[in-house]
Amino acid sequence: MINQSVLQLNQIGHRYDQTYVIKDIHLNVQDGSFISIIGPSGSGKTTLLNIIGGLLKPTEGQVLYRGKDVSGQTGFVSYMPQTHSLMPWRTVYDNIKLASEITHQQNDIDALIERAGFTDIKDKLPSALSGGMKQRVSFLRALNSQNEILLLDEPFSALDELTKFDMQQWLKTILQATHKTVIMITHNIEEAILLSDEVYLLNDKPAHLVQQFHTSHINGVNTELIEMKETIRTLL
Ligand SMILES: Nc1ncnc2c1ncn2[C@@H]1O[C@H](COP(=O)(O)OP(=O)(O)OP(=O)(O)O)[C@@H](O)[C@H]1O
Ligand SMILES: [Mg+2]
Fold first, then answer.
1. Are 68 and 43 in contact (CB under 8 A)?
2. Is the CB of 42 under 6 A from ligand 1?
3. Residue 89, ligand 1, Cβ within 6 A
4. For residues 129 and 135, is the Cβ–Cβ distance under 8 A?
5. Which of 17, 43, 151, 152 to mutate to test the pocket of ligand 1 (most atoms within 8 A of CB)?
6. Is the CB of residue 18 below 6 angstroms from any atom belonging to ligand 1?
């Protein structure tokens, strides 16, 4: 059978101590799709992303990348962590360059910086940037990699609504020029519906994916979005 999934999660379960945090997670991610995972705080979203990124080996189950078991192995995906973790002594340019340095890739960082509108700040240190700008730099750093899968852990958290809207538009524009498969964690239901093709809800204890919503056709705030938002809110 031909499998078009770029990433497959097979019965993933994880526990840090006796109690399972997540259990029985199945997910098929299609090439080039944008999926969001929403769940309450502490439900295991970062745990799941760490498992997909290979930073954690799941207690149970497998992570398959193009059919190959890569559970517990890093290097197959790019990861924008929940806290930006920029290196304070490196400039914006040098922070973005980090991923390509590690993998010895020759990426056109200047082109990426120009596309993002960052030419004016590329020589600044992170301490001179606002929280929102740091998040964008962290996003560009994850994007500056040949990996086709991009994991984003709450990329717009701690931003006010206006900045958030701005950054969502910016992210959409930047991503249009790439062909990445994106898995985004978020608390924001509207953001998930507007940006992604599919939204999954992670809930209950231990957490599993309780429901899937197809959202690729919703590109603006309309009645369908408002109704879906309400449905999701009642399920969380
Ligand atoms: N290294 C660890 N050791 C022990 N327990 C952990 C560890 N990391 C996370 N946990 C626990 O696992 C549960 C899920 O944590 P996780 O960070 O995955 O949640 P989350 O959904 O990302 O939360 P948030 O929305 O607040 O970021 C929490 O109860 C947390 O305390
Ligand atoms: Mg988290």
1. no
2. yes
3. no
4. no
5. 43
6. no
Residue 1 has pLDDT above 90, yes or no: no
Give the whole-angstrom CA distance, residue 124 versus residue 93.
8
**128-to-81, 88, 113, 167, 190 alpha-carbon distances in Å:** 21, 10, 17, 19, 31
Q: Which of 213, 214, 183 is nearest to 201 (CA)?
A: 213
Q: What residue type is assigned to position 45 of the chain?
A: K
Mean pLDDT of 179-204: 92
Interval between CA 46 and ligand 2 midpoint (Å): 4
pLDDT tens-digit readout, 35-94: 999 999 999 999 999 999 999 999 999 999 999 999 999 999 999 998 878 999 999 999
The token duo for 31 is 């090439």
CA of 228 to the centre of ligand 1 (A): 27
Query: 128-172: per-residue pLDDT in tens?
Result: 998 888 988 998 899 888 899 999 999 887 677 777 787 788 888
One-letter amino acid of 80? M
Task: Output the DSSP codes for 34-72.
Answer: EEEEE--TTSSHHHHHHHHTTSS--SEEEEEETTEE-TT
